[in-house]
Structures are given as structure tokens and as C-alpha cells.
Design goal:
The protein is of the alpha/beta class and 363 residues long. It contains 15 helices and 12 strands.
Length: 363
């Protein structure tokens, strides 16, 4: 009897132990399946961290996605873009590591600008940089849920990008390339240093808002100085050479404003100016480097860098574009190309040369 009882007891204990082991194994198996179901592919780490409420862990493993759109490629706009990217890099954003940049070039076509802005809007970029007025206008219209910064914009207020320069008021702000004194100082230089100057020719695509503002300032300044203005309109780069040639024999100097169409074909204007010994004045230092004779200006790289620091303030410090005033270049200096001056029949005196900073003299 006792042996039967002991045998039954041992059997029951064995059954209980096996049941407990089976329950334990089932529980472990079920937990593993749940974890695997929530961890598809390489995003599992971010998903788990997000699920655990670890915002910091998510930030460490995620990248900032920025869209950069440029209306056309030319030296000044290219420098602005590179300066912007350098500012991000100096603040800890390295492309390919914690930063992804989607760069698009609109090829100076407004239809392309609109399509790029729409693409960035649907891609949910965390920030967009628009380089060039018409592109910035498209971005401001299409993108409402992300900060939009602009650079190389002559007249942000006239272009309708901001409600005021001091308090932009929406999701758009940036930097302007029109220093308040740049155009008037350059025209005073023309009046003082170009021998027997009576008429200045201006090549411009006045379909661009930035060009209209720049040309109006030049015309006002020249008329105050008693100098006549001869404007020649262009609508695309293929017309620039012929437009420049039409000024030969009619003007004593040519001015090219911050006009994306004309600056894109600046080499043809430089050739006409050199062949006919007409001093060529330009709106940007980068265009002086490319063969323009002189300009009062600044570095577009530095302007882009300033815009990049604004982006960092938004991404890292939580500032809102609505509260960030439109900013300008900090410096304004005369830049002069000695080789272009010689080719265009302009004599650079030692006195004038001494007034120019060494890093603003080009050959």
C-alpha cells in the first residue's frame, strides 16, 4: 500500500514538473515570437527604442533629411550652397552619417522649381533650403509643414516670402544678397573712375523679382549722378551674347545685376567687354573672379554659411523661422579683377589698388 502511494505521489510530482517545464517553455517561445514580429529589418532598433519611449535613442540613430533646391548653377549660388553645407558640418551634421541631403537643380525653369518644391513637400523633409528667388517662392507656396530657408534673395519682402524682414511670421526666413549700400556705392565708383562716362548699359531679365529690385536701385543711383541708362532685356541665356553686343559703341560701361539668367552666361558678356574694351561691373564678388571688372560685395560662401547657422538654430535649438529675422552679409568691400581691368581698358592706379584688400584683388 505504502509503495503504491509513494509511486503515485512520485508520478504526480513528475507530471507537475513536466507541466511546469512545458508552461515555461511555451511562455519563452511566445515572448520571442512577439519580439521578432516587432523587429522587421534594419528599422528594428529604432522601432524598439521608440516603443520604449527613448526619444534620445531614436534621435541618435536617425538622420536629418534636408532638401536643397537651386534655381540654376552659377558660381555665386554654388558658393552659397557650399557655405550652407559647411555650416551644418561645423555644427556636427555630416552628410552620409547623420545628415541626408537631397539636392535638386531646377535648370532655370520655373516648372521644374514647382515640381521640386512639391516633391520636397511630399517627402516630408525636415528642412528645405531654396536658393534663388523664383525657387524660394515655389517652396514657400508648396511647403507648409517644414521650415523653409532661402539664400541669395535680393528682395524677400517684395517677393512675398516674408511678412516683414524683422519678423517673417510663417515657416520661411533666410538671407538676402542685397546689401543696402552695395549698388549705390558701385555706381558712385563708376561715376568717379570710368573716364568720360555718360551712359551705362544694363543687361537684365526683368522677369526675375530680384533683378527688378537690383536694376531699379542702379537706375536711381545713376540718374542721381547724371548718367544715362540703357537697359537691354533678355529672357534666356541664349540671348545674352547678342544683348551685350548691342551695347557696343553706345555705352562707356556695362552693369550686370544679380540676375540668374545673365550671370549664367557671364562668360559671353566678359568676352564682349574684353573685345571692345568696355569696363564690366557686376553685382557679386564671385562674378569678379569670373571676369567682371569690379563690384562692391561679399562672399556668397559666407552668406550661405550664415544661412546654415540659421538652420542649426532651427534643428538643434528649436527656433522658429517666424521669429528669425532676415539677415544680410556682415561685410561690404570693393573687389577688382586686375586682368579684367587691363583687358577692358581700365587703368588701375596705385592709389586705387592700395584701397583694396589683398584678398579682394583677383587676376
Amino acid at each position: 500500500m505504502n509503495s503504491k502511494v509513494n509511486g503515485t505521489t512520485r508520478f504526480n510530482m513528475l507530471v507537475m514538473m513536466m507541466s511546469l517545464l512545458l508552461l515555461f517553455a511555451t511562455a519563452c517561445g511566445t515572448g520571442g515570437n512577439q519580439a521578432g514580429g516587432n523587429s522587421p529589418g534594419s528599422n528594428s532598433g529604432e522601432s524598439d527604442k521608440a516603443g520604449n519611449g527613448s526619444a534620445g535613442g531614436q534621435a541618435q540613430s536617425s538622420k536629418v533629411h534636408i532638401g536643397i533646391a537651386q534655381i540654376v548653377e552659377h558660381p555665386s549660388l554654388d558658393e552659397a550652397r557650399l557655405g550652407f553645407i559647411k555650416a551644418l558640418k561645423d555644427s556636427g551634421y555630416t552628410e552620409g552619417e547623420n545628415l541626408e541631403i537631397d539636392y535638386q537643380n531646377a535648370q532655370n525653369e520655373q516648372a521644374n522649381a514647382v515640381m521640386i518644391a512639391q516633391k520636397f513637400a511630399t517627402d516630408d523633409k525636415q528642412l528645405v533650403l531654396a536658393i534663388g528667388t523664383s525657387l524660394a517662392q515655389a517652396a514657400a507656396k508648396e511647403i507648409k509643414s517644414a521650415p523653409v530657408l532661402f539664400t541669395a534673395i535680393t528682395d524677400p519682402l517684395g517677393a512675398g516670402l516674408v511678412q516683414s524682414l524683422e519678423a517673417p511670421g510663417a515657416n520661411v526666413t533666410g538671407t538676402s544678397d542685397l546689401h543696402p549700400e552695395a549698388v549705390s556705392k558701385l555706381m558712385e565708383f563708376v561715376a568717379k573712375h570710368v573716364k568720360d562716362v555718360k551712359t551705362v548699359g544694363i543687361l537684365a531679365n526683368e522677369g526675375e523679382q530680384n533683378t527688378v529690385t537690383n536694376v531699379n536701385q542702379a537706375v536711381t543711383a545713376l540718374e542721381k549722378l547724371g548718367i544715362e541708362v540703357k537697359k537691354v532685356p533678355v529672357t534666356n541665356t541664349s540671348e545674352v551674347k547678342q544683348a551685350a553686343e548691342s551695347l557696343v559703341g553706345k555705352v562707356q560701361a556695362i552693369y550686370v545685376p544679380s540676375d540668374n539668367t545673365v550671370v549664367s552666361a557671364l562668360n559671353t558678356v566678359v568676352a564682349v567687354a574684353n573685345d571692345n574694351k568696355i569696363p564690366l561691373f557686376v553685382a557679386e564678388i564671385d562674378s569678379v573672379k569670373k571676369g567682371g571688372m569690379a563690384s562692391f560685395g561679399f562672399s556668397y560662401f559666407e552668406l550661405g554659411y550664415k544661412t546654415g547657422k540659421m538652420a542649426v538654430d532651427i534643428l538643434k535649438n528649436g527656433k522658429k523661422p517666424a521669429d528669425i529675422p532676415v539677415q544680410y552679409a556682415d561685410t561690404l568691400d570693393l573687389g577688382l579683377n586686375l586682368k579684367a581691368a587691363a583687358a577692358q581698358g581700365f587703368v588701375v592706379t596705385d592709389e586705387l589698388k592700395a584701397q583694396i584688400k589683398p584678398d579682394h584683388l583677383f587676376e
